[in-house]
Amino acid sequence: MILPVQEMARELRDLCHARRERIQLMEVCGTHTVAVFRHGLRAMLPEAVRLVSGPGCPVCVTAQRHIDAAIELAAREGVILATYGDMMRVPGRLGSLERLRAQGAQVRVVNSARSALELARANRDHPVVFLGVGFETTAPATAATVLEAAREKIGNFSVLMCHKLVVPAMRALLSAGDVPLDGFLAPGHVSVIIGAGAYRPIVEQHHRPVVVAGFEPEQIMRGLVSLVRQVIEGRADLDNVYSRVVSDEGNRVALELLDRVFVAADTPWRELGVIPQSGLELAPAYRQFDALRRFDIVLGEDEDHPLCRCGEVITGKAEPRECPAFAGQCTPLSPIGPCMVSSEGTCAAWYKYGRGGEGPATHRSEEPA
Amino acid sequence: MSATGAPLGHDRVVIAHGGGGELMGRLIREHLVPPLRNERLAGLADGAVMSWPGGDLVLTTDSYVVTPLEFPGGDIGRLAVAGTVNDLAVMGATPIALSLALILEEGLPLDLLDRIIKSVATTAHEAGVEVVTGDTKVIERRTTPALSVKGEQPGAAAPQEGLFVNTAGVGRRRPGVRLDLRRVEPGDVILVNGGIAEHGLAVMSVRSGIEFESVLRSDVVPLNGLIAAVLDSGADVKFMRDATRGGIAGVLADISEGCARTVEVHEARVPLSRTARHAAEMLGLDPLTVANEGKCVFVVAEKDAARVLGACHAHALGADAAAIGRVVDRSPPLVELVTRVGGRRVVQRPYGEELPRIC
After folding, report:
1. Are residue A257 and residue A108 in the same domain, yes or no?
2. pLDDT digit string, tens, across residues B28-63
3. Are residues A29 and A117 both part of a single domain?
4. pLDDT category, A165, cuts 50, 70, 90?
5. Are residues B53 and B87 in the same domain?
6. Does the residue A362 lie in any domain?
7. Are residues B199 and B292 located together in one domain of the fold?
8. CB A280 within 8 A of CB A262
């Protein structure tokens, strides 16, 4: 019996049959990266098709200066820092939040911005800072929570704003032009919010095909078939194979929420540097919830570990196996860079599912000497 | 308090050290075993075998720190009995007796304690074993109640209702059982007695406040009856282990490393309920790495696979049992998964706590 995904894999092979040049496609989002590995799809792709990871893992793109600011905040007397779990182990210049917690700091893992606000309600004597990380998927929840905090005048709540926008990063990558990219697989969940139409500038101004796909293996394969077909036929269209869920205009309520509470701002990204209008900042009416202002913290500089090539990994310039630290000095046990920490990180996915670079090397690398 | 310290590595215990993954393995190998080194400890098995007149004895112990104390399908008391009984059973032992040690935190409601001890009694009865000795200590409350809040994640803070349980168990090894990973060879079949990931997902969904279409219940149950039925079938069981923290991925890695062979597993054959699959997707977890408390992985010779499957299917706790894969003659030793859609990937031992994803 031929399964539908195997059928599409065959279609891809047929399409690429006579193809000499490589087709380099970027899966923008970490959830796609992980899904591709988890379902074993990489093993099914023709040789001509190369999938590279993009700047869509929220943990991985967070600039080190923001991690350092979070650590500085959490180390302050009385402060409770509330964060999504993935951020716990990301190393900054002075260790990680996980480590700080082991030393006695009040660092709490929460599943939502609202849980952080609940913490603030329950601990009125303690400042509670929420580490606001993520793209347009998590940003509306942060916005709604800020509104709630303002309405109820919860003065001990604030947000360290690290929220980012997907499309400006894609455009920055294309404008920089250091990596040949033939097309983008756009993430389903972000697209639910921003709408498939948000990618139109990439298609129209940069002439690259963009296909919006969900995270099921059938969706991903269908997206890849559409991208490869377009590249081979010399087209650059916007395609949405997830139209059951993703509309062209997006989720209007969520977008209005973002508009009301945040303003776009120039924001630092790991490796990519400061990208104009690529992040979100609190709008003037809500700036009293800005943790940086409230605690008078000035963002420092990024000083990434000299061995770490996460920046190149999240911009499609390098594969994890090209990093000298990968699976040797940098493992999930003692990660050097965020791509090895995050469950959505490219290096973690390669390590966990991909035998660390198509070879079995990493499987036993954790054994004690 | 300061944020300084060596930038990488661990000089203190972190919560992931308790996750049952590679990090915990290191803690045990590097910090616990060396000073205590002895022959019976060396194997780091679920229990120790001691020669005894009239048949070998097996001794095991386990501590339980689950939050919340009560969850759909069970509670810490049921867990403490079933977990220790299962550790004895997978060593090929028939449980004889258990001890029960309680550490109670000041403020624990007595009616909650009563429910949990009643659950201990019920589960022990179910397993056909008695609690014959015990110990009770009370400690001061560790945090102010104000610092706890609903919806927090594992390890975030001390629970308001603190209770830690330790059980130890002693059992008699069944004659004729030869559990030894070195006997495993290519062609041997890997079986599991039913739907995976239910305990971990049930507990995590309570903690995260996420509700699913139908209630996810923990599978926590004493497996000694089922395991006795499998052994009574006369099948040559070469290895068995209950897949607790680390999920079946952890046990499959144990098998592959222990016999130095590749283990090939078919995702489509691994029993997983619709609800569990849905929950794992929502929480961003790989069901293979999620904890079970009522699932055992068996390795048997191919000729005996049908017999083990038959014995499982005839037992209430094995109705959904399935042969999920086999040991193959490929090196290097890996756990390989043939995915539901026909792809292939490696399964690795989880390295620590599985964290919920954020997008």
Report:
1. yes
2. 999 999 999 998 888 777 789 999 888 899 999 999
3. yes
4. very high
5. yes
6. no
7. yes
8. yes
Partner-chain contact B351 A123, CB within 8 Å:
no
The CATH number of residue A26's host domain is: 3.40.50.11740
Cβ-based contacts of B14 with chain A (< 8 Å): 98-99, 101-102
Q: Are residues A243 and A106 in the same domain?
A: yes
Which residues, other chains included, contact B302 with Cβ-Cβ below 8 Å and sequence gap of 6+? B187, B188, B189, B326
Q: Do the chains contact at B149 and A38, CB–CB below 8 Å?
A: no
Q: Among B86, B26, B78, which Cα is nearest to B61's?
A: B86
Q: In this structure, are A249 and A330 located in the same domain?
A: no
Q: Under an 8 A CB cutoff, do A111 and B356 touch?
A: yes
The confidence score (pLDDT) of residue A307 equals 86
Q: What is the pLDDT of residues B57-74, one digit of tens each?
A: 999 999 998 888 999 999
Distance of CA B66 to the CA centre of its chain: 13
The beta-carbon neighbor of A37 closest among B6, B29, B345 is B345
Chain A, chain B: beta-carbon pairs less than 8 Å apart: 187
Q: Which domain holds residue B270?
A: 181-347
| CA distance to partner chain A, nearest, from residue B97 (Å) | 36
State residue B335's pLDDT score: 94
Task: Tell me, yes or no, whether B65 and B21 share the same domain.
Answer: no
Count of the separate structural domains present in chain B: 3
Of A41, A75, A91, the CB nearest to B7: A91
- Pick A219 or A178 by higher pLDDT: A219
**Whole-number percent of chain A with pLDDT over 90:** 71
A203: tokens are 């298609």
Q: Contact A115/B149, CB-based, under 8 Å?
A: yes
Identify whether residues A265 and A323 lie together within a single domain: no
Q: Three-state secondary structure along B222-290? A: CCHHHHHHHHHCCCCEEEEEECCCCHHHHHHHHHHHHHCCEEEEEHHHCCCCHHHHHHHHHHCCCHHHC
Inside any domain, residue A361 = no
The pLDDT, as a whole number, for residue B15 is 76
Q: pLDDT grade, residue A363 (50/70/90)?
A: very low
Chain A hits for B10, CB-CB cut-off 8 Å, are 99, 334
The beta-carbon neighbor of B359 closest among A9, A138, A351 is: A138
Four-CA torsion B196, B125, B74, B230, nearest 10 degrees: 0
- Predicted ipTM of the assembly: 0.72
The predicted pLDDT at position B153 comes to 41
B109, B234: one domain:
no
In terms of Cβ atoms closer than 10 Å to its own Cβ (0-12, 13-18, 19+), residue B356 is buried
The answer to whether the CB atoms of A5 and B22 lie below 8 A apart is no
Q: Judge if B91 and B232 occupy the same domain.
A: no
Helix, strand, coil % over all residues of chain B, rounded to 5 = 35, 25, 40
Exposed/middle/buried for B177, CB within 10 Å: 0-12, 13-18, 19+? middle
Cβ distance A85 to B355 less than 8 Å, yes or no, reads: yes
- Report yes or no on A154 lying in a domain: yes
Q: What is the pLDDT of residue B4?
A: 35
Shortest distance between the Cα of B300 and any Cα of chain A, in A, equals 25
Task: Report whether pLDDT(B129) > 90.
Answer: yes
A296 and A314: one domain? no
The C-alpha of A333 sits at a distance from chain B's nearest C-alpha, in angstroms, of 6
Domain that residue A107 falls in: 1-309
Q: Is residue B200 part of a domain?
A: yes
- Looking at the structure, do residues B27 and B62 belong to the same domain, yes or no? no
Give the residue with greater pLDDT, B90 vs A342: B90
Do A343 and A225 lie in one domain? The reply is no
Residues A263, A339 within the same domain: no
Query: pLDDT digits over B166-196, tens only?
Result: 999 999 999 989 999 999 999 999 999 999 9
Contact A355 B356 (CB under 8 A): no
- B316: its two tokens: 């209430």
